[in-house]
Amino acid sequence: MTRVAKAKADRAAKRLAALEATQRQITDATAGRERALQGMNALLSSRQAALAKARAAQAAALAASRARGQALQGQISQIEAQQAAAQQAASSSPSLPTPFGSSGASGGWVIPSAVVACESGGQNLTPNSAGASGYYQIIPSTWKQYGGTGSAAYLAPKSEQDAVAQRIWAGSGPSAWDCATMLGIH
């Protein structure tokens, strides 16, 4: 009986050892899955943060674009108001000023003041992306062609810019200025 009991105890010990080994494998596998899930959660959190950052950047860009659109719309409204005022002044005056007038309705410009307002706002501007500069926004090749001195219009005094603009107007008329077309000055 002792032998039988000992054999039973040995079988039970082997079975217990096998069960403990299986339990260790299950525990190790569960720990591995838990670490994998933690890694996936960390990756997911990182991606969610990156997505939130990208969405915030998109929202900021959209807001900036909308603000720029509103600013441009405001500028368009101002130009349209100036155009309407110029058209109203032109239609209500008994005699239209000549484009070469030096004072009065033309505001001291040798071309229609509405064109100057559209081109430069009456400012002696430095060259833009096309190279146009000065009060009349004259490109360097035209500046030279019509007798301007120096490399660019904005470097010359207003009197010289007036003289060159007057020669351009006499030679090419309003077609020399994009704003004249936009304003309907032919």
Secondary structure topology:
Layout: H1 2-92, H2 113-119, H3 140-145, H4 158-172, H5 178-182
Question: What does this protein look like?
Answer:
Helices cover 67% and strands 0% of the residues. It has 186 residues and is mainly α. The protein has 2 domains: 92 residues; 84 residues, Lysozyme.
Largest sheet: none
Total separate domains:
2
Low-pLDDT regions: 93-105
What is the mean pLDDT?
A: 86
Shape: rod-shaped
Helix content: 55-70%
Order of helices and strands: HHHHH
The proportion of strand residues reads: under 5%
Number of strands: 0
Distance between the termini: 126 Å
Which structural class do you get from the secondary structure elements? mainly alpha
Number of helices: 5
Q: Rg from C-alpha positions?
A: 41 Å
Q: What keyword list fits this structure?
A:
rod-shaped, 5 helices, mainly alpha, 2 domains
Quick overview of this protein structure:
By secondary structure, the protein is an all-alpha fold. It is built from 5 helices and no strands.
